[in-house]
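ZP: hey, is the zinc ion complex queued? I don't see it on the tracker
AM: it wasn't, my bad. submitting now with these inputs:
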Amino acid sequence: MKIDLVHFCRFSVANGHHRSIGRQRLVGVIGLGAALILLNSCSSSAHAQSAATTTTTTMTAHVAATTTTTTTTTTTTTTPAVATLPAGQPLAGKVVGIDPGHNGLNYTNPGFLDQQVFNGRTMENCDTTGTQTDSGYTEALFNFNVAQYLTSDLEAEGAHVVLTRSTNSGEGPCVDQRAQILNSAKANVAIDIHADGGPSDGRGFAVLEPVADGPNDAVVTSSVAFGSDVLASFEAITGMPLSTYDGTNGISFRNDLAGLNLTTVPKVLIECGNMKNSTDAALLTSTAQQQRAALALASAITDFLR
Ligand SMILES: [Zn+2]
């Protein structure tokens, strides 16, 4: 069945790939990861991947008639740092909102998706199908899986978690209702989980942050601070690079998303990678990467709340 996958998160403005910000926070995250022991309720095996640095040395000899030159090229690749959940329950008494974007059966009901809702600035569709990889792995499923792992991580830390949807076999809710659910819960912080449908030659993750519009005025500054935590943690723990095409230095300010326009709690939206890029897609569809993404978000939430 042909599915019309129009992804509302897509942002097509190309940007340079800079990695100059977030270094101070990055050091903090790595320090946290090194200091804490992993006790992850999701899956012990998925988080037990060892940090390792692999160095490959290639020597190529160029022999000319009268001279001999040896060129040595060294390539270093580093796997993501071992990250762990904090011991104890540092999030006891805290409420965390999680919005896994889209829903698994959205594609079955275009009439439902086409309902017009107010997004804080203008009217827009109730929801969209989300994107998918070229092999048909849906963003809705990715978002849901990460949300489930993140819920387990946060509950292990003592948080009360409020989700906007509890299955991947339904439709909606509409984007304005998603915001309202987390507002009504009076979440101390909230995260919208997505993956992008960007250009096939573009890689990486981006953090989408609110622009003051009235309803969200009181939480823009705190959301930006939370976004810095998310960016640093996600880059350090998941191994996913900053987006090569979305935002600047991995950050994109957006005034067209209901989840950010209508929020009254600190919130950002993360595009965890580009499902239309083959390298990103291979990562995003792996259980290990989904669990690393959850752990990175849990670490950022913990950093922000304590
Ligand atoms: Zn999405």
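AM: back. The pocket of zinc ion is lined by residues 7, 9, 101-102, 130, 139, 194 (CB under 6 Å).
ZP: great, adding it to the tracker
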